[in-house]
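Open question from group meeting: does this chain pack into something compact, or does most of it stay loose? Before anyone orders reagents, we agreed to write out a predicted structure and look at it together. Recording both the input and the output here so the notebook holds the full record.
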Amino acid sequence: MPHHTPLIGTIVAGLVVAFIMGAIAHRLKLSPLVGYLVAGILVGPFTPGFVADAGLANELAEIGVILLMFGVGLHFSLKDLLSVKNIAVPGALVQITVATLLGMGLAYYMGWGLMGGIVFGLALSVASTVVLLRALQGADLVETRRGRIAIGWLIVEDLVMVLALVLLPALAGVLNNADGSGGAGALIAPLLGTLLKVAGFVAVMLLVGRRVIPWTLHWVVHTGSRELFRLAVLAIALGVAFGAALAFDVSFALGAFFAGMILGETPLSRRATEETLPLRDAFAVLFFVSVGMLFNPSIVLEHPLPLLATVLIIVIGKSIAAWGIVRAFGHANVTALTIAASLAQIGEFSFILASLGTGLGVLPADARDLILAGALVSIFLNPILFSLIVRDHKKDDDEQVEAAKAPEKPRIGHVILIGYGRVGKMIAARLKDRNVHFVIVEGDAERVEEAEEAGLSVVKGNALEDKHLLAAGICEARHLLIAVPEGYEGGAIHEHARNLNDKVQVIARAHSDAEVAHLERLGVPHVVMGERELAGRMLTLCGAG
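Structure tokens returned:
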């Protein structure tokens, strides 16, 4: 058989070029999404050189959409939304309305139809989850009041877009088959039929899926097979999405979203996320590459003013709307500015809507190109806007009051524990029992919450960033215990820590002889490898140690 096939060529070209451009974007401190979209442009039909198979790329992208929506459902948090519902729900709805109307105005100027204008406006109204969370995490704002408002706001936007994805095919079908007869009934009947199908699917998922999915995963867990668990999660995500489309005629996106949402309610949600993340990321990259392949760069020269208007709607128009809404609800100016900057970009849902709209024939190709160009520019500008606001306003008034009410205890000669996973939890429990003063550094939000509920002192963030080590008191610490499972990551943490405090005593965890050798080369004085400790303990117990 030939070594080169269109499928292999498309996957290889997409991933290799996406890696190169994503690495360049990361180096420039931009979102990797920019790199992935540029990679799609480079392997697309509108630029010279290798051209990937657009048909195959779109099919691979469909899997990417399913896994992206599964991830959205998996991380959907009703608790987070309810905690800020008074501002997030009305704020997001008003902001979506304003941005959609602005987009419809530009669409009217361009001569597009009403439905194309609605889809175009909706695509400009929803922010990227990836970009927003990265901005909040980089500024340590995820756990703050304004960070929770931004995340809750985004959840509402996502829910509205899921509804739009459900209704758009029905609306497009009515418009494409319209012959001027039937009146309102011609529109109401298909919409009612779609809503009934969706209601039937939701009922089946709540009555059957809510029991079958958790039971299946718990059974798989007890088999002890990690591979089977990973396969089960993927089978659920793809199977429910395909089954929803086949049996209820609803979109892949809605099926995957509900599968993730139901799985997210189970204790196994974190493990499901960890097991499927690599494959989900790979297909998500192919999705962004396929979107980039559709982009015609000539739009920049042919329609510069509409492109400028699109960027202004995304960066200025909806941001002013968000700022005004937050201020109208009585929140501080810095909170309003943070929300406005967080939402001044578009991403995943915009691409999904654009692809669906052009596929259904309601969105012109020029509109899709303007959406993609607007996304590239807004994602490029977003870190700059965000850094200006964070630099000038570190804390809002409410956060300063909370900090004043809870002053930090002095940290001198204490222990810093990196990681609150399986091993970290056991270490923390022993330290607590012995009344040793220690601070945990952990990046996972659920583990941070778990540690805080246990009454432990936690710094949320990546230990590879000096600011988080400094917040944990690395300069005054006596011992640093690195309990993360990756020995090479532990070596990098060791180097950062010793640069800040060359007297701190480091004890690191390793999984292999290669990791032990690597850590010892870096000068880690004490390296603990699980297998060696097990062997030593077993020999001691049998009297041969």
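Observations to bring back to the group:
The two ends are 58 Å apart (CA to CA).
Residues 86-174+184-275+304-398 form a domain with the Na+/H+ antiporter like fold fold (CATH 1.20.1530.20).
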